[in-house]
Amino acid sequence: MDNLSRRSFMKLFGASVATMGLVACGGSSDAGKETGSSDASDAKFRSLDDIKSSGKIIIGVFSDKAPFGYVDDSGTYQGYDVVFANRLVQDLGVDVDWVATDPANRVPLLESNKVDIVLANFTVTDERAEKVDFSLPYMKVQLGVVSPESALVTSVDDLADKTLIVVKGTTAETYFEQDYPEIELQKYDQYADAYNALLDGRGDAFSTDNTEVLAWAKENPGFSVGIDALGNEDTIAAAVVKGNETLLDFIDDEIIALGKEQFFHKDYEQTLAPVYGDEADPDNLVVEGGQL
Hints:
- 34% of the residues lie in helices and 25% in strands.
- Strand 2 and strand 3 form a beta hairpin.
- The termini are close together.
């Protein structure tokens, strides 16, 4: 999909949606001047200029989803999304406040103006695009299913009469509820809790992004990804408050420019390759310049 057509497509969602308010913490003391529609709401968000003037940007990331977003032993945020976020911060010339999020809270964080950007392995869906604005993509993803090797789940049929663990607010939850409502789902708010449930045998299998379960299985002997590509191929993108065009334009311009230096392949080599090894081809996962 070319850049112009994608931008035009995304803007169709925003025409009638009001923008949100100034971020509540770590943000500029001056309200943003932009609004995303003529709705009656007087809420305002922080434009790109507001963020620059404040000297700080607030970014929502995962804190427990290695290798995409996590906190290391020294208390520092690390991961594929965080490397990208740090580059945005560097090129903006501001400081950053990190806000830890879980999957279900990504949209509410933006809608309540607690963050300027969410960079949290955020899969683009039509439903989410009605509430937030997505950037150009920087990664491709499908669902995967991990389970114990002693009772490996290799097809959806294997989940009959079994319990599948999912995390609330993820595409896995939506996919199985819509396409396989007969499968019993065990839902958790946090990824760490979901994986602990699998380790403890409270569920038979766990489904989330294939990129994530592949990484987890490599670090947890006795578990394997029996289904490594399920559902549609989706994209991962940054998200901003609905209607915040100046910030969205900045992110899109960055993604296009970074593509010229193969930034996301370098990010992959730094953060994902040590985990995946030879089991994944970066060209099947990484998107450069926003071009699929």
